[in-house]
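Lab notebook, design round three. We kept the backbone fixed and only want residue identities now. Task for the bench partner: fill in a sequence for the structure below.
Input structure tokens:
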């Protein structure tokens, strides 16, 4: 029998972080990027390539199962 009313169990481990492997549209390097499915069903942001430092336009779509789909394209500044 456990009487652990005084122990606050710290809550569930909600690790929703996922990673995706993408290729840089500029240098072609494949890079593992971390996603945050909890950040919303549709996310759009700019991130710089770790290798060539050029800006990507990143789109993340999270479906009803928490499955994230990522697309990365070149952010063209015309
Ligand atoms: Zn690159």
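Proposed sequence:
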């Amino acid at each position: 029998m456990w009487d652990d009313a005084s122990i606050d169990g710290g809550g569930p481990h909600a690790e929703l972080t996922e990673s995706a492997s993408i290729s840089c549209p500029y240098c072609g390097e494949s890079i593992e990027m971390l996603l945050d499915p909890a950040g919303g069903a549709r996310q759009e942001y700019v991130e710089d390539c770790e290798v060539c430092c050029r800006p990507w336009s990143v789109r993340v779509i999270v479906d009803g199962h928490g499955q994230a789909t990522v697309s990365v394209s070149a952010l063209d500044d015309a």
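Keep this in mind before ordering anything: The radius of gyration is 18 Å.
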